[in-house]
């Protein structure tokens, strides 16, 4: 009888831990796909801004931002708002916030929990990075590109993909009156270590975004 009770307690404990871990994932509201400024006006106002205040984004704003960056816009064929070579969709968007690091799952419209804590300051070498409420990190998964490409071609394809995505973020920021800046001067090894990337994953760029100071 005691052994049965002990087994039951262990099962409950393990289930509780698993459930608590799953609760750290964040289901985002459906992105709002209408509104915003006209395209030509948005292009006219597209700019790099490094001066942020620390006002938080709502979940709706995060959902809109990430959908604009690399969300699913043709669900029936699995296509997205930014192109990728051979449609491999090899770039993942990680998000560093005040409370943790997440990865954007575009197909379930969810932030999947990676790590607790505020690591924004490690996502760039400038002081302003830690003031932005969100820092996006673009990470390529070379395993999605197959084995028929050289590392040089993989670097070219993934860099191009990250460029498309980051420009989408710039246009979203201009449309919404936000501040953003892409960062190439980053500690790739430190970011890889913090997130716990595999040998097939490569840190490309980061991008801070927030409200203008």
In order across it, which strands form the biggest sheet? 1-6-5-4-7-9-8
Q: How many beta-strand elements?
A: 9
The largest sheet is: 7 strands, antiparallel
What name is given to the CATH topology? Answer: NADH Oxidase
β content, as a range? 15-25%
Looking at the overall shape, the CATH architecture is 3-Layer(aba) Sandwich
Pairing-aware structural class of the strands and helices? alpha+beta
CATH superfamily: NADH Oxidase
What shape does the CA trace take?
A: globular
Helical content band? 25-40%
Structure description:
The protein contains five helices and nine strands, in the order αβααββββββαβαβ. It is of the alpha+beta class and 213 residues long. The protein has one domain (27-211): NADH Oxidase, CATH 3.40.109.10. Strand 2 (72-74) and strand 3 (79-80) form a beta hairpin. Helix 2 (39-45) packs across helix 4 (151-176) and helix 3 packs across helix 4 (151-176). The longest helix is centred in the last third of the chain and has 26 residues, at 151-176. The chain is globular. Mean pLDDT is 91; it is low at 6-22.
Main features:
213 residues; alpha+beta; NADH Oxidase; seven-stranded antiparallel β-sheet; two-stranded antiparallel sheet; 5 helices; 9 strands; 24% strand; globular
Spell out the blueprint of helices and strands:
Layout: H1 2-23, E1 26-27, H2 39-45, H3 59-70, E2 72-74, E3 79-80, E4 91-96, E5 100-105, E6 110-116, E7 134-141, H4 151-176, E8 178-183, H5 188-195, E9 201-211
Antiparallel strand pairs: 1-6, 2-3, 4-5, 4-7, 5-6, 7-9, 8-9
Helix pairs in contact: 2-4, 3-4
């Amino acid at each position: 009888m005691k052994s049965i009770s002990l087994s039951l307690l262990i099962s409950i404990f393990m289930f509780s831990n698993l459930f608590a871990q799953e609760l750290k994932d964040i289901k985002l509201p459906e992105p709002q796909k209408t509104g915003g400024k006209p395209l030509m006006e948005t292009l006219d106002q597209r700019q790099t801004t490094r001066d942020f205040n620390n006002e938080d984004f709502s979940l709706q704003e995060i959902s809109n931002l990430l959908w604009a960056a690399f969300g699913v816009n043709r669900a029936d064929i699995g296509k997205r708002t930014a192109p990728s070579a051979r449609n491999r969709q090899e770039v993942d968007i990680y998000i560093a916030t005040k409370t943790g690091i997440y990865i954007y799952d575009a197909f379930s419209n969810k932030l999947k929990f990676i790590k607790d804590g505020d690591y924004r300051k490690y996502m760039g070498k400038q002081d302003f990075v830690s003031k932005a409420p969100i820092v996006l990190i673009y990470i390529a998964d070379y395993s999605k590109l197959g084995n028929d490409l050289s590392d040089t071609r993989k670097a070219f394809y993934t860099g191009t993909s990250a460029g498309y995505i980051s420009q989408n973020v710039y246009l979203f920021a201009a449309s919404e009156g936000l501040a953003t800046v892409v960062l190439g001067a980053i500690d790739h090894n430190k970011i890889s270590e913090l997130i716990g990337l595999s040998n097939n994953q490569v840190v490309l760029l980061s991008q801070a975004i927030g409200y203008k100071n």
